[in-house]
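Before a computer can learn anything about folding, someone has to put a protein's shape into writing. The outcome of that step, for a single protein, is printed below:
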Amino acid sequence: MKALLQPESVAILGCSSDLNRISGRPLKYFLEKGYPGRLYPVNPNQEEIAGLRCYPDVRAIPGTVDLAVVAVPAERVIESMRQLVAKRVPAAVIFSSGFAEMGEEGAAAQRELVRIARAGGVRFCGPNAVGILNAFDAVTASFSEYLEGPVAAGPIGFVSQSGAFGTAIAVLARERRLGLGYYVNTGNEADIDVADAFGFIVEDPRIRVIAGYVEGVRDGRKLLAVAERAMALGKPMILTKVGRSDAGARAAASHTGALAGADAVLDGVLRQKGVIRADDEEQMIDFVEMFAHCRLPQGANLGIVSQSGGAGVLACDRAEALGLRVPLLDGKTQASLKQILPAYAAVANPVDLTGLSLAEPERIRRTMKQVLADPAVDIGLLWVRLMDKYADLMVDIIADISASSAKTFVVSWLAPPQAALTVLRERGICVARGAAQAVSALAALVRYARARGRWLADAPAREAAAAQPPGLRLPAECGAMSSVPAAAVLRSAGVALAPFELASDVEAAAAAARRLGYPVALKIESRDIAHKTEAGGVLLGVADETALRAGFEQIVSSARKRHGAARIDGVMVQKMLERGVEMVIGVQQDRAFGPVVMVGFGGVLVEVMKDVVFGAAPLTVSEADTMLSSLKAAQVLQGVRGRPPVDRAALCELLVNVSRLAAAAGPKLGELDLNPVMAGADGSVAVDWLMIPGKESA
């Protein structure tokens, strides 16, 4: 990665003498931006390009080459890679398209390219890549139009799987005076992927924020490791991940051959690691600007000062919708504001500057400073408009407010004079596009601050969670495991189960019910019937032996009628529990992230309600608790309609134990479904369970 992003020598294969062509642009940019290293154009039809000696092939270059830019037709790429291997070039950027993004024939060529590169020790970015930029060291191995303008190095590392969209985002960042220290387009990711690029960039001390546009994730665990490293370094990671819808996922897959993956899983694991997700390119830049320039807030209390009552109300609505608070200002603060503003001004929060501030802008300075000094305020938001006549004074006022307080401060300036906006951004002061955009970015800032606080406090628990128990041995069965051996595995992992016995006939069932105590539930036991309720194989609230005998025959008959070929091992007789909040806890093997744990509100409507969240296994107690808080109906756990609150600690412990089981089993555990889990004031107990071994079991 160092040879790729910080090379001391670069060869450009297929370099054109026309520096405006795609194959000529990299050399043009290297020369224009002042690259200090050695440059070697490679073209058998030229003796010299732009005053530099041109070589017939890479093997003719004297000395070593750190990075090769491959700008040749697709049919010549594999031979070029063989030459790089022979020359012992450690890294390459491949512009050429016509590989996995073009169908099976292209995919086969890409596999051959990877085979040659790996055997020869060459790491490469692409194919089908726009290239890379390291603005700190003037490394411009790219044909991106972004390089046509100034590329001032800044504290932001940006990685994109889309070249065209990535270039547009880079230009948008430049318009906001945000310097990209790195811009990497990974193309098809046949070798180097977004996680590899992030992993190198995040270690650069000149980078404070990393951001990315992602269409698909192949190695999710590698990406999460980078996210954890970014969290350890205190460098926020912001991602725009497309493919939320089925149509979007198909489009992403066809674009670069990337697997979009289940969006709900990705959303959960990113949140678990403190990654901030932006909805689109504009919001990504909003977030990047705020994270690059603003202090992390100590809380979520927002103090709003506005030249418009309407803008203040809009900001309040947006803040409360996103989990921020707009507290009443302290009585002393309100009294001070009444000395600054007209008697009719609103001073409780939000504070209305009134039209007087248009003629006397110094009132803005005094008002905002008073609000920031209030002990109930963690964040200050100033909304102003126009002010062309006082542009220079407004720059002074805003810069003074920012410098005079240790709290987070953001200004939203509607239709500002362009010169004033440029000066503020060059001074590192965040100027948001509007009130709603400012509040959305502040909410992201608060989420990150909270996530990092939890992450730092959770370090000992994370270390303990990583100490996995010995690998579990699961039977090599096709389909679901029988309930009894599955129960043994769950109990060994510390999962509480409702008491039950397996009965092979009605007499054994009656005896079991007497031991367990009525009422009981009857459930058909068959590894061939995954969903027992739909098969008529469940009978609840069996109150006595007469009902049990009739019920036993009923569910066996129903199961045989609907699943004639199913192997029926008997009937499970289970103690009925007092009703609690029905939850679902599950495990699945995600193709990108490995074993992930799901929790949500369960029962028969789980697939309709879809109020579930995911996390990567194993979990800490804090992570489990955060997952519960992320549920849409999380308030239910605190008790509703006279019901007592759920024992949250016990529910978290159950979730953690399941996650450790998932981490220990790895791919040996294909799927686990605990539904329902009865969560009550005195603990959480799994009532029904379905365990399916993975392909690597036994």
Q: What stands out?
A: The longest strand covers residues 669-680. The radius of gyration is 31 Å.
